[in-house]
Design a protein that fits this description.
This protein is an alpha+beta fold and 463 residues long. It has 13 helices and twelve strands. 51% of the residues lie in helices and 17% in strands. The strands form three sheets. Strands 2-1-5-4-3 form a five-stranded antiparallel β-sheet, with helices on both faces. Strands 7-9-10-12-11 form a five-stranded mixed β-sheet. The protein has a two-stranded antiparallel ribbon with strand order 6-8. Strand 3 and strand 4 form a beta hairpin. The N terminus and C terminus are likely disordered. Bound molecules: adenosine-5'-diphosphate (ADP). The site of adenosine-5'-diphosphate (ADP) has 22 residues, from helix 10 and helix 12.
Length: 463
């Protein structure tokens, strides 16, 4: 809804008729009064007395009008101005006109405000205006049903005192620049899932919007459960096929080459399906558990050392030049197996997608109070249009190549989910023909101060 443009301040003339200076009329009137009063005084032989009485009459007339004006403005019961003539009549009319204009402007604004309130009330989403300290200033009808806000007792209350979900508490305390979102159950009904958005505006004001996403949430949970269950169910038959294909390969031995080739294919595809199932299970575990189970100090330089060794083995005849540059005292808090899984996907991808003989560099260093990981290769690079979608499940540039290299198309999706749990994300830079760079910055709260590794190895040696 657009508000009418603000009218520019205009000079107000107190004359009801044509605008003009009141001085000639006022001077004429005064001259007449003094002439008449002086003339009457002359007739009775007391000119000064006549003039004095004329002046007193003027004063009394002015006083009467001032008192009328004061009472009119003070009582303000009637909008009609007091009946008066001359300059005072013009003043009353001028003020009356101003009042009328003011009143119609107020009415217009009230109508617009009413319209805005009605439209906000008609929204299916809850809207709450929060002033400084997250105190509730105003809310619409759906906020009563979704958030349980009650008029008037909740006005001015801090919203975190009424809505006591721990996630919501830390969400509302966060001072973020842009819009932020959280999904929490409604305080009115645990089964209602709300998506809450906080939008800062003006000075220290925030708009809280809550949307009922119960249906969407259930569908999403069903999808997650379905993928997790089916992956779980596939595990056993795959293990059996895997075992049988190995037995068959042993039985056939150096027999018919076509049969041998078929068994080899069964074996390869079973391995691929097993990897897929493992990745799917890992993804659904990451989705269902919002935070890492264990947050322990992780010796990431050691993890990276092992990963690079594995990457060299994976490279095999590819003879990639893989360099590792780590800060041995740089540890982070986290879950070691999760972190290993994320970083290995990045390092192994560099090996898989960089042609034989290529150069891969793995870097782990402190940047200020944060930890920085980077893996860089001089492989084929990734065209810019693919970059935003690269972390989506099953998104591949070249599915044939990905399958040949044993890829499941889930590696970067796993990386994204793992990093999300640590409050960070994957940065990808790539140029076709030059190579790719995948980097991660770990936040300060997860970066340990310098760890003296010589002390650790000495202690370990003594044990
Ligand atoms: P995949 O299992 O297919 O490797 P990922 O999710 O790990 O799946 O990667 C998604 C896609 O990103 C890959 O199919 C590949 O096309 C591209 N990709 C990932 N890493 C690199 C890299 N270092 N160089 C070039 N392309 C890469």
């Amino acid at each position: 809804m657009s508000l009418p443009p603000r009218s520019s301040p205009r000079r107000v003339s107190f004359r009801s008729g044509a605008a003009g200076s009141p001085w000639p009329a006022v001077t004429l009137r005064l001259a007449l009064i003094f002439l008449v009063s002086g003339g009457l005084g002359y007739l009775i032989g007391h000119v000064v007395l006549g003039l004095f009485l004329g002046t007193a009459a003027c004063l009394v007339w002015n006083l009467v009008n001032q008192v009328q004006l004061e009472r009119w403005l003070r009582e303000g019961r009637t909008l009609e101005p007091p009946d008066s003539r001359g300059l005072w009549g013009d003043i009353f009319n001028g003020i009356h006109r101003l009042q009328r204009r003011q009143r119609s402007r107020r009415q217009k604004l009230a109508t617009i405000l009413q319209g805005i309130r009605e439209s906000i009330n008609a929204m299916p989403d809850a809207a709450v205006i929060l002033r400084e300290n997250s105190e509730i200033q105003w809310w619409n009808g759906p906020a009563r049903d979704l958030l349980g806000l009650q008029w008037p007792q909740d006005e001015g209350q801090r919203i975190a005192n009424l809505f006591r979900h721990p996630d919501f508490g830390s969400f509302i305390r966060r001072e973020e620049e842009g819009t932020s979102t959280i999904t929490v159950p409604s305080p009115v009904d645990e089964d209602l899932m709300l998506e809450i958005r906080l939008i800062p505006y003006a000075e220290n004001q925030r708009l809280l919007l809550a949307r009922d996403i119960t249906r969407l949430y259930r569908l999403e949970r069903m999808r997650r459960d379905f993928v997790a269950n089916i992956s779980h169910e596939l595990r056993t038959p795959l293990t059996v096929i895997h075992g049988l294909s190995e037995t068959l390969a042993d039985t056939v031995g150096n027999g018919d080459p076509r049969t041998r080739r078929s068994i080899e294919l069964i074996h390869q595809q079973t391995l691929r399906m097993e990897r897929l199932v493992e990745d799917l299970l890992m993804l659904s575990r990451l989705e269902t558990e919002p935070k890492p189970v264990e947050m322990k100090p992780v010796n990431l330089p050691a993890v990276l050392g092992l990963l690079v060794e594995e990457a060299r083995t994976l490279s095999g005849d590819g003879n990639h030049r893989i360099e590792l540059d780590t800060d041995p005292g740089l540890w982070v808090y986290g879950d070691e197996s999760e972190l290993r899984s994320a970083l290995s996907n990045l390092v192994f991808n560099a090996v898989k997608y960089t042609p034989a003989g290529g150069h891969i560099q793995v870097l782990w260093q402190r940047r200020g109070n944060r930890a920085y990981f980077r893996v860089e290769d001089d492989g084929p690079g990734i065209p810019a249009q693919h970059l935003p979608r690269l972390t989506e499940r099953f998104y591949r540039l070249d599915s044939g190549r990905s399958s040949r290299t044993g890829g499941t198309g889930l590696g970067l999706a796993i990386v994204k989910h793992v990093l999300g749990r640590y409050g960070t994300r994957l940065q990808i830079k790539s140029e076709v023909g030059k190579g790719s760079r995948f980097s991660i910055t770990f936040p300060e709260r997860l970066t340990l101060p310098y760890v003296d590794t010589t002390m650790i190895s000495e202690t370990a040696g003594r044990r």
